[in-house]
Amino acid sequence: xxxxxxxxxxxxxxxxxxxxxxxxxxxxxxxxxxxxxxxxxxxxxxxxxxxxxxxxxxxxxxxxxxxxxxxxxxxxxxxxxxxxxxxxxxxxxxxxxxxxxxxxxx
Amino acid sequence: xxxxxxxxxxxxxxxxxxxxxxxxxxxxxxxxxxxxxxxxxxxxxxxxxxxxxxxxxxxxxxxxxxxxxxxxxxxxxxxxxxxxxxxxxxxxxxxxxxxxxxxxxxxxxxxxxxxxxxxxxxxxxxxxxxxxxxxxxxxxxxxxxxxxxxxxxxxxxxxxxxxxxxxxxxxxxxxxxxxxxxxxxxxxxxxxxxxxxxxxxxxxxxxxxxxxxxxxxxxxxxxxxxxxxxxxxxxxxxxxxxxxxxxxxxxxxxxxxxxxxxxxxxxxxxxxxxxxxxxxxxxxxxxxxxxxxxxxxxxxxxxxxxxxxxxxxxxxxxxxxxxxxxxxxxxxxxxxxxxxxxxxxxxxxxxxxxxxxxxxxxxxxxxxxxxx
Lengths: 106, 372
What we know:
The structure holds 2 protein chains of 2 kinds.
Chain A: H1 21-53, H2 59-63, H3 69-86, H4 88-101
Chain B: H1 11-28, H2 30-41, H3 51-59, H4 63-89, H5 91-99, E1 106-108, H6 117-120, H7 139-151, H8 163-175, E2 183-187, H9 195-201, E3 206-211, H10 214-227, E4 232-235, E5 248-254, H11 265-275, E6 276-286, H12 296-308, H13 314-319, H14 322-328, E7 332-340, E8 352-353, E9 362-369
Parallel strand pairs in B: 1-4, 2-3, 2-5, 3-4, 5-6
Antiparallel strand pairs in B: 6-9, 7-8, 7-9
Helix pairs in contact in B: 1-4, 3-12, 4-7, 7-10, 8-9
């Protein structure tokens, strides 16, 4: 009997010669991330066009939007939080390296 | 054009599938042009006895090639991932739709069927589970159908994905305008995108199809019944079809030869001869490329497809001499050439020639008669 069970990843998967597996994984993650970004952009576009069709606001209103002081501050917070979260591994690695070089152990 | 079994895509799923389409187009456009340019600088010359293999190997020394190859595979893996997730979301609905199909044709699943070894251990095109994967219902067939339409980038008859079947019929209707088969068989019918158009041009015939995947066949049967075309489908190997000698007036395949185990094309043609009645017609449709006409980059691309997209059997299929092989199998009236791609075959209309007009514009066709 043949194994006909459904798999969630194809076999075989040959390594790309000379490419470290971690890099291959990163390219895979990057591709998936770009797809998610494309979906988000398209969804925002849909929202803007539906809002315009409903007589609320459209893409031009979004383009010409000027945040006031409080809004700018809130948005700065959102952006800086996002940077800190995404790039935390780099920060952590820097901390570990500095500690190691100072002889404090990893 | 679409059909009731086709999995749908909600807003975000459609955006994901369009991303895959456009990302693949990006990678195969200007980026690939530069890969080709790099490869040509590594050419050891036409007289080198392992020219393609050597350049393919040396390309792997280049960061840009490795990155491109990795992204190319990532796009293919993402395609199956997003289409698979979309089908998972609507799995129950797809099963309900399959059960609601009109009572037309039949599907027979032999639980003892053994998948040919070369397909059992390779998921062609990186489709997880491969052709034989069976979720117990129509899921794997739905994955093949929706994924295939995205994979073809809409160039093979849109969401019907059926241009090959129409083109095969166009060849028959041009070459044999009075042909009125009573029994038809397709080897490797998959989700039925070719058998449905062929059967619809010959409504007086009883049309059968075999394939190696139970889920593909359940899906194909429901798909065909919803379209209104009766087809009789069962599990079977193209080299050992489960039918007595001389059962059919027409035996055909559409892009099945390049999925055969290399070295078995002759055996498959012998099987077609066995299955045909004297006077019966054999017809095969294949990809229009020919290995001897491919330039260096096209041959390297073939290596990339074989190695990183699990498509290992192209080279054998596009290198074979079909005139010789059909003759050795006992056929006469052998014709080998190219048929213009169409989605609407008409009797007597010409579209056959000895030159390919290019990928998706022509399909390679070969037809012959079992002597009386």
